[in-house]
Design goal:
This protein has about 100 residues and is mainly β. It has one domain (about 1-80). The chain has 1 helix and 4 strands, in the order αββββ. The protein has a 4-stranded antiparallel β-sheet with strand order 1-2-3-4, with no helix packed on it. A hairpin with a 4-residue loop joins β3 (about 50-65) and β4 (about 70-75).
Length: about 100
């Protein structure tokens, strides 16, 4: 994923598609990509009716010049609508709701 650092936001979105959410911060913005994953007790993929779920996130930090500066992955139990932008200010912050 480090190969994306320095690329433009437009190239990133053209390749991966639009984010599910975009948050503004003092340094620019954060593009949020999310996939809801369902797992059965034996940790294999399951159906929504018979498995627990979590969200796998990709956070893409973009500076004010429109360049990708940092990417990180995270797993959480809450949906993208509950992400608090103020908790994502630093790249080392966790995205708790």
């Amino acid at each position: 994923m480090d190969s994306w650092v320095g690329k433009t936001k437009q190239i990133f979105i053209k390749t991966l598609g639009p984010p599910v959410r975009t948050l503004q911060n003092a340094d620019g913005e954060i593009l949020i990509y999310a996939d809801q994953v369902y797992k059965k007790a034996d940790n294999t993929n399951g159906s929504p009716m018979h498995a627990s779920n979590n969200w796998e996130y990709l956070y893409v930090y973009v500076n004010n010049e429109g360049k990708v500066t940092y990417l990180r992955n995270e797993k959480q139990n809450f949906p993208p609508q509950q992400i608090d932008a103020s908790l994502l200010k630093g790249t080392n912050a966790i995205s708790a709701k």
